[in-house]
Amino acid sequence: MENRNWQLIDTIVEIKSPWVTLIGERIKDDQDNILDYWRVEKEDSVIVVTRYKNSLIFPKSTFRPGIKKVTIDFAGGRLKKNNNLENTAYKILQRELNLTQDKVKIITPINQQGFIINSSFSNQKLWGFYCELKSDISLDNLFIGAIYSLNSNDFKRLLNDLQCLQCRSLLLECVSQGLVATF
């Protein structure tokens, strides 16, 4: 695939906020058509697939205004500029599940390069971590939104309930790498 003959003609507008940057551009494509292209740039996402004993745990569900629904999602957040990925994963665990680093048995990257999430309204990377908690700890129920056992029936229910494509992608990546297996 070549990018030949695609040219940025002009930036129409650029609006920056702490969360997103909206960019409108005029682009000439490879057939000399002039297109107005709008995109949003965001900080990269970090999602932590968290296992406790033989279950996956989720923080409290949140309302998503764009789809007008409450959804379950793995613990996640944004990677601030110049922040370390693993430190960000630990901060997410603390904020969303009230888990400190001493409660973690294993934390390991799911992907070595960020998965590209790119469409006209999303330009970012997705970083995933697999976290296994120590089995002798207690969870803070005020922070737990859902628990799904890794038995095959619960796992099928989880795949039905888990609507976030980024979360599903990382979960299935964990399965393909043998980090998560159903029984």
Please explain how this structure is put together:
This is NUDIX hydrolase. By secondary structure, this protein is an alpha+beta fold. The chain has two domains: 7-42, no CATH class; 45-176, Nucleoside Triphosphate Pyrophosphohydrolase. It is 19% helix and 44% strand. It has three helices and twelve strands. The strands form three sheets. Strands 4, 5, 8, 9, 10, 11 and 12 form a seven-stranded mixed sheet that branches. Strands 1-2-3 form a three-stranded antiparallel sheet, with no helix packed on it. The longest helix is centred in the middle third of the chain and has 13 residues, at 85-97. The radius of gyration is 19 Å and the shape is elongated.
General shape: elongated
Strand content: 35-45%
CATH fold-level topology of the largest domain: Nucleoside Triphosphate Pyrophosphohydrolase
The CATH superfamily title of the largest domain: Nucleoside Triphosphate Pyrophosphohydrolase
Please tell me the CATH architecture of the largest domain by its name.
Answer: Alpha-Beta Complex
> How many domain regions?
2
According to DSSP, the number of beta strands is: 12
**Biggest sheet overview:** 7 strands, mixed
Strand and helix order: EEEEEEEEHEEEEHH
Mean pLDDT rating: 92
Which radius of gyration do the C-alpha atoms yield?
19 Å
Which bin fits the share of residues in helices? 10-25%
- Gap between N and C termini, in Å? 43 Å
Number of helical elements? 3
CATH classification class of the largest domain: Alpha Beta
